[in-house]
Amino acid sequence: MCKVTMEEDLKRIRLVFERLDKSGMPVSFQDFPLGACGDTCQVLAEILTEFGHGEFRYIEGQREDGKGHAWLEQGGMFIDITADQFDEVSEPVYLGPPNSWYHQFGIENEYIAGFRELDAESAVELSTILSEARAELNK
Q1: Number of domains observed in the structure of the chain
Q2: Distance between CA 62 and CA 73 in Å, rounded?
Q3: Which domain holds residue 42?
Q4: Quick one: which of 54, 61, 100, 137 has the most CB atoms within 10 Å?
Q5: Which residues of the chain have pLDDT under 50?
């Protein structure tokens, strides 16, 4: 049996996130990918860890123009499925080393990604997304 790569999983997860019924989701996720980067990172880290891809760091940064963004990092590689919410990014999935686009962001927050670092209320709120995504991914 062939092992699925992280990039293949990321593309599949991104498609699932796009197709989810967002009506009962947290407000930050209803216009996915727009404004959904932080919540998406937390849910994505949970899914990728369950898929056996290891542990991830949550990175949050802000540009000089005040726009913020969040992505995951593992072993010097950036993992991002929401960067295309910005006009200058067209790819829906990024897996690669930090590039000039990410260097625009001054890092403001960094910690181990996933629900264990969240407060209980946030974890419960995001569990809706996680449950629905799991159900779709297991079809």
Answers
A1: 1
A2: 16
A3: 6-137
A4: 61
A5: 1
